[in-house]
Amino acid sequence: MRGLMQEWPLLCHTIIDHAARNHPDRRIATRSVEGPIVSTTYGAVRQRALKVAQRLAGMSIRAGDRVGTLAWNTARHMEVWYGITGVGAIYHTVNPRLFHDQITYIINHAEDRLLFLDLNFVEQVEKLAETLKTVEAFIVLTDRENMPDTSLKNAICYEDWVTGADGDFAWVEVDENAGCGICYTSGTTGHPKGVVYSHRSNVLHALSVNMADFFGCSVKDVVMPVVPMFHANGWSLAFSAPMAGSEMVMPGRNLDGESLCSLINEFGVTMSAGVPTVWLGLQHYLQETGKKMPSLRRLVIGGSAVPFSSIRFFEEEQDAHVLHAWGMTEMSPIGTFGSLKPEYAALPREERYAVQTKQGHSLYTVEMKITDDDGNRLPWDGKTFGRLKCKGPAVAKAYFKGEGGEVLDAEGFFDTGDVATIDENGYMNITDRAKDVIKSGGEWISSIELENLAVGHPDVAEAAVIGLHHPKWDERPLLVIVAKDGKSPAKEDILGFMTDKVAKWWLPDDIVFVDEIPPTATGKIQKTELRKQFADYTLPTVDGPR
Amino acid sequence: MRGLMQEWPLLCHTIIDHAARNHPDRRIATRSVEGPIVSTTYGAVRQRALKVAQRLAGMSIRAGDRVGTLAWNTARHMEVWYGITGVGAIYHTVNPRLFHDQITYIINHAEDRLLFLDLNFVEQVEKLAETLKTVEAFIVLTDRENMPDTSLKNAICYEDWVTGADGDFAWVEVDENAGCGICYTSGTTGHPKGVVYSHRSNVLHALSVNMADFFGCSVKDVVMPVVPMFHANGWSLAFSAPMAGSEMVMPGRNLDGESLCSLINEFGVTMSAGVPTVWLGLQHYLQETGKKMPSLRRLVIGGSAVPFSSIRFFEEEQDAHVLHAWGMTEMSPIGTFGSLKPEYAALPREERYAVQTKQGHSLYTVEMKITDDDGNRLPWDGKTFGRLKCKGPAVAKAYFKGEGGEVLDAEGFFDTGDVATIDENGYMNITDRAKDVIKSGGEWISSIELENLAVGHPDVAEAAVIGLHHPKWDERPLLVIVAKDGKSPAKEDILGFMTDKVAKWWLPDDIVFVDEIPPTATGKIQKTELRKQFADYTLPTVDGPR
User: Fold this and answer.
1) Pairing mode, if any, of strands A137-140 and A114-117?
2) Where are the alpha helices (DSSP H) in A210-254?
3) Kind and range of the H or E element at B222?
4) Looking at chain B, which residue has its C-alpha nearest residue A209?
5) Nearest in space to A238 (alpha carbons), one of A6, A451, A75
6) Would the CB atoms of B5 and A340 count as touching at under 8 Å?
7) How many Å from the N-terminal Cα to the C-terminal Cα in chain B?
8) Is residue A145 annotated as a catalytic residue, yes or no?
9) How does DSSP assign B128-158, residue by residue?
10) Interchain CB distance below 8 Å, A212 and B204
11) Contact B424 A63 (CB under 8 A)
């Protein structure tokens, strides 16, 4: 027997419709790529999104077609998203920081028919244009006055294109499970793989992450999405903020401390979200200038681990509550928030901050489990760690065009590639990447914990731990160290420092000193390089006692 | 092209699963119907709900079967709901305040196969038992010690029944559009009609109403649902609170001021929700005793208009923010909340309270429109009033078994039967019931506004306005007045008082004085009776000038 409730499919246009109907004059301020700060409203964004959809329909863009965007966070970018989804097509956000051949690869792989791009990416795209096989036209997100001379074929000035439409158009209704957005994720090996969001997943994710202990957007909030829309579905803020009728501030391309601080104070930003490096830049700027940001109440930090010192700074010096968010492109993207449960609220400050560095508890729409290598569920005791796997309506079940093959386990969970503990209160803490964890005699050793411990030694500048083959234990840890300038600590000294701080069987079997640990483009340790470098290294414990 | 996100149907059991997984030890305290305050946890509620489901399956209750509950707000009632929906069956909440023949009617109409009932309803049900054609067994929500002798056939002691199951049971997976709950709504004419919620509508409604400007339940909240679960789907709190992991306090059967105040202070309740009469009782108790409720931050009031004086009392004397909610059984039930937008936050206090008495802005999942009698949309200007119609995934499209026929208009909107204005900011204000509005010369006159105006006269105790037939204007208002004891105001005096306070053509064509205006069971004016009484009354303006 079916319920007798209305059919009302979960489509993205309902979000901007709601905002325009109920919050028509609510402001969206943008620091434009051209320079000046410009303002618009939800009413105007919806009207222009309808014009975008009308224009796209006029260029025979149909449901399911992919349309690329290479753009910063601006109101224009947002109206383009709603225009694309409103004609049933699929926005494909291209990350301008990818290598050129990766950009070519993903645009060709997605078969983008059009590419919207910000002014400052014109030169970059001109160099690639010949390699982009499917792009029929390039729409430059600017007005006639700022439109550059360009070698791009079929270059279109966005403002002329939009304002020429009359907006007499109705959203194209599609099934709520239809594709709506694509974001490519760059694995450590092979080509980037496309994650395909549906209307349903975007709407459910936006609803779920809008609950009080997560983004909790309110009509009284002024929300500044600093995380770019091209990064992991823009963390859903282009959906969550309009759904709540929040005022928005779009920072454009300038994400330095001074630019962000001035926007926060000019518009009274109450909530913002971005990656740690951006907030470190803001923190340094505030520390140098002694400035305050009295309006800011919630600062969401995600993408990588939050430094303890940043939590302390924003909580104590700026009276802003720091919320650590964890997610993945494959999860639309939010999985958990390190928001405080009542169990932790009464903790002394420093212990509370330690809880806030954890990845935290999951959205209602995210089921988590941790498993051993055989897929058996492990206990939630805050100590046992296992592969973290997730399930939910906004979690990927496959990649575009089947790349990467089957990605779900027998119970339908997606393997995040992370290794984590979960405590009795459902609080998750990532301890390692699955590929970096060291498997010793059937038990797991966290490379990250050992690295964090080693850099605590006064003479150690950098540390990396990799697992090397061991005939008896399968793998054992090798600790690779860069000493501080002028220091040359002894192996025994460092081992002595680490002893008693971890289980004895976690202690590395050997320590080697190097001049440099190869970094990745984003500053993380490139363990694949280290593994190659030490591929033939024989641990002293091989054939020896342990 | 479909998205590549996981299938994860929106089923009610995912809510209690989430709570039990992530908030296993969070407390649900209940003032039991037997007397003592008892406590349980989400972990235990889920485990017992699984046992309920297992027992129901053992009694051959199958997907789509209806199971009645006649019970107060208790943890037991909540675990029964989850047990019923978890076996794919449909909870049918029976309102014990209905007349006996209405209770018989709805239980027979729903074809309830079982009836769960609280201890204190046993006597009442014994009297009805013979008329209940479909009920195979009566499960009394108590333990062996308190189990009464009863003439009910197949009477079962709940605790024995539940604890005898081992809980080794998996939720029955059904389509998310499957029926999940029924609540009957009593119209002014004819039999009550059944509204059939689906799993999808309950989950989407709970998500949507959990946004910050509505219930906004947090893991840090202690939520006390005072509105009974048998009233309009319990305002969704049995879903919304566990979805957020909030602590809960269930007040059982005692809803007097003293009982509620003691629960609020004993458990540190932060948010509660109920109808105005209950909060008036609490207000009087607090005023008499001078007690405070320091933990209470949000008080949600709905079901009928909120008295201005109550808003002032709770805001100023108790430092609790009053949120006026509007909804209907047919809307799962929440439609709007009078939460403050930034436009209103800066208003002087009294003006702000006036905004808070309005019905307010809609959930993301509720679309509203106001129309004239021909179904044309009317402007959102805060002045024009029209029939209020709603659309959304948790709004009814029909009643059970087709009672009442077609209820949606050509655009798929449900007619609420209310007449309202909506302002430029999407703020809705109900001005009348559609059946009470007076249609004069194609324009509408609000009976409620005229009544409110008339009772402002110092000699008027009660006032009611009804429309009487008029050959030229179709309808014209008749004002019916009960004077205050010892007063006998003149017609001209009252008309003079009203003049200049409303448009001239709104003024009543005549005034009659009566000793009593017939009230309904719930204390509202019974206009149907008044219309009968004055059916043959001829207005002095008939054939006269206007």
Assistant:
1) parallel
2) 237-244
3) strand B222-225
4) B211
5) A75
6) no
7) 65
8) no
9) HGGG-SS--EEEESS-GGGPPP---TTEEEH
10) no
11) no
Alpha-carbon separation of residue B386 from A215, B306, B343, B418 (angstroms): 36, 22, 24, 8
Q: Is the pLDDT of residue B29 over 90?
A: yes
User: Residues of A with CB below 8 A from B201's CB?
Assistant: 3, 5
The reply to whether residue B408 touches residue A6, judged by beta carbons under 8 angstroms, is yes
Chain B residues touching residue A365 (CB < 8 angstroms): 8
What domains are defined for chain B? 8-198 (3.40.50.12780), 255-434 (3.40.50.12780), 438-533 (3.30.300.30)
- Which positions of chain A have pLDDT values less than 70? 187-189, 520-524, 544-546
pLDDT of A522 reads 52
Distance of alpha carbon B153 from alpha carbon B240, whole angstroms:
36
Question: Under an 8 A CB cutoff, do A212 and B244 touch?
Answer: yes
Closest residue in B to A342 (Cα) is: B220
- The CA-based angle B382-B383-B387, given to 5 degrees, is 90
Strands (E) located in A423-473 = 428-433, 438-440, 443-445, 460-470
Q: Give the residue from chain B lying closest to A179, CA to CA.
A: B3
Q: What is the pLDDT of residue A304?
A: 80
Other CB atoms within 10 Å distance of the CB of residue B68: 29
Q: What is the pLDDT, as a whole number, of residue B518?
A: 79
Q: Tell me which chain A residues have a C-beta less than 8 angstroms from the C-beta of B211.
A: 207, 210-211, 217-218, 243-244
Look over chain B and give the mean of its residue pLDDT values, rounded to a whole number: 94
Reported as a pLDDT band with limits 50, 70 and 90, residue B522 is low
From B21, B341, B392, residue closest to A219, measured CB to CB: B341
Which residue in A444, A473, A506, A527 is the catalytic one? A444
Lowest mean pLDDT, pick from A180-189, B208-217, B295-304: A180-189
Please report the pLDDT score of residue B545 as a whole number.
45
Is residue A293 within 8 Å of residue A320, measured between CB atoms? yes
**pLDDT-based confidence at residue B113 (cuts at 50, 70, 90):** very high
Tracing tokens 């309005």 back to the chain, one arrives at B358
- B262: pLDDT strictly greater than 90: yes
Chain B residues in contact with A217 by the CB 8 A cut-off are 211-212
Say if the Cβ atoms of A339 and B219 lie within 8 Å.
yes
